[in-house]
Amino acid sequence: MNDEAPSHSTLDEEHLAPLAIRFMNALERRRAGQLDRASEEPRSILRVEPRLAEPHMELASIHLAMEQPERGLEHAREAVRLLESSARWNEDLPENVLKSLAHNLLGEAMRKMADQDSVVFGAPEKWKTLMEQAKHAFRTAAALDPENQHASWAAFGFGPQADEDAEPADGSTDIPALDLVGLVALHEGNAAGEE
C-alpha cells in the first residue's frame, strides 16, 4: 500500500476531470441552441471551482446570444481578470488565443450595451465611453491573436471613427465570434496541417 499523499496536481486533475465533462456538455447544448440549459452547467462548475475563466467565457457568450449584454459583460470581465492572473484551464489553446477570445467577448458585450435604446437615446457620453472601451477590448484581442478576424474587424469596423478601409479578409460584413469549441477545432486543424 502506498502511504504517500497524492500530489497537488493529481488532486487538481481529479477535481477538474468531472467538471471538464460537464463543461463539454454545456458547449454541446449551446451549439444545439439550448441556451437556458447550456448556462446551468457553467454556473454549477463555478460553484465548485470559481477560479476557472472558461466557464465565465461560456456564460458571457451565452448571455450575449440571449441579448443580455450586462450579464455577459460581468462574466467577460471576470474571465479577463482570471486569465490575467494565469488562471487557465484549457490546455488545448495557446494562452494568447484564449485571452484574445476573452477580450473579444468583453468588447462584444460593451458594443451590445452601447446598441441598447436606453444608451443610444440616453447620455451621449455613456455611448461614447462604451464604444471606446469596446474598441480597446477588440484591439487588445486582435493584438493578442492576429488571426482573430472578428476582433480585427470589430476594432476598426464600427463607431464614429471607423476605418473605412477596414474590411473582413473574406469580404463578409458579419464575422461571427468563435467560441471555445470552434477555436479548439481551428487550432487542432492548423496543427494537423503543419505536420
Ordered list of secondary-structure elements with their pairings:
Layout: H1 8-31, H2 35-48, H3 53-65, H4 69-84, H5 95-114, H6 117-120, H7 124-144, H8 149-156, H9 180-194
Helix pairs in contact: 1-2, 2-3, 3-4, 3-5, 4-5, 5-7, 7-8
User: Helix count, per DSSP?
Assistant: 9
Overall tally of structural domains: 1
Give the CATH topology. Serine Threonine Protein Phosphatase 5, Tetratricopeptide repeat
Overall strand count: 0
Query: What would the average pLDDT be, to the nearest integer?
Result: 77
Strand content of the residues, in percent? under 5%
Low-confidence stretches: 1-11, 159-177
Structural class: mainly alpha
Terminal residue distance:
44 Å
The residue fraction in helices comes out at 55-70%
- Classified in CATH, the superfamily is Tetratricopeptide repeat domain
CATH architecture: Alpha Horseshoe
The CATH first-level class comes to Mainly Alpha
Radius of gyration computed on alpha carbons: 18 Å
Morphology call: globular
Instruction: State the major sheet.
Output: none
User: In sequence order, what are the helices and strands, one letter per element?
Assistant: HHHHHHHHH
